[in-house]
Amino acid sequence: MRKNIVAGNWKMNTTLQEGVKLATEVNEALKSRTPNCDVIIGVPFTHLASVKAVIGDNLGLSAENCADHEKGAYTGEVSAAMVASTGAKYVILGHSERRQYYGETSEILKVKVEMAFANGLTPIFCIGEVLEERENGTYFDVVKSQIEDALFGFSAEDFGKIVLAYEPVWAIGTGKTATADQAEEIHAFIRNTIAEKYGKEVAENTSILYGGSCKPSNAKELFAKPNVDGGLIGGAALDAESFMGIVDAF
Ligand code: PEP
């Protein structure tokens, strides 16, 4: 059975001290709950080890990226092995900000997913169209290509380890959320695309998260949709109370 997941993506926010405080607050808030979903926080590289030291096993830890090389002369890069050595179990890959600002192509992302697998990390792999593609109706093709090009070279067994996050770029950080019906339409399409390649069982077991201005006030409606298995949360993950409001939506 696929899992329900609420994952935070802090992006380039919080100093180390602020991040440890926020992680501590999230961890404390989780202690008084039995959430109906897995809860993960995605934090900057610099925070991983320190955050790991203050959270319990019921709060998953994710990096926001990893290198597309194993190790060596890549100044400033952080490898999947380094991420794993902090105790993190997840890595967000292919976020639209990485694709847009750092030129991450499907080719590069495929290698990053390989690096994640080689180091026992679960990729939280982001896909999603820009506004123009939504408006001209090509968004189905765009999302299908993003999945096919980066991920369909993997075996069914490996593909089954990936968490997908559908994040329409026009909804990220804009306050503009996809409606629950828009999310359901494309999530169902994504699941069908997976089923065509790997079969129904793999598709049914794949968690597909929604991301894009998800907040406590709209999470319940989004998560109620049969093909929406949770959320990847940016802005609202920077405050423990609002993040928990989304966790509580399950
Ligand atoms: C994100 O960047 O993954 C995201 C969903 O951001 P926000 O929730 O702020 O739109």
Descriptive overview:
The chain has 250 residues and is of the alpha/beta class. The protein has one domain (5-247): TIM Barrel. 44% of the residues lie in helices and 15% in strands. It contains twelve helices and eight strands. Strands 1-2-3-4-5-6-7-8 form an eight-stranded parallel barrel, surrounded by six helices. Helix 1 runs parallel beside helix 12 (240-247) and helix 5 (106-118) packs across helix 7. The longest helix is centred in the last third of the chain and has 19 residues, at 180-198. The radius of gyration is 17 Å and the shape is globular. The mean pLDDT is 97. The site of phosphoenolpyruvate has 13 residues, from strand 8.
Low-pLDDT sequence parts: none
Approximately how much beta-strand content do the residues carry?
Answer: 5-15%
Q: Can you give the mean pLDDT? A: 97
- By CATH, the topology is TIM Barrel
Q: Which CATH C-level class is it?
A: Alpha Beta
Main beta sheet strand tally, sense and closure: 8 strands, parallel, barrel
- Radius of gyration over alpha carbons? 17 Å
* Ligand catalogue: phosphoenolpyruvate
Spatial sequence of strands, sheet with the most strands: 1-2-3-4-5-6-7-8
Structural domain tally? 1
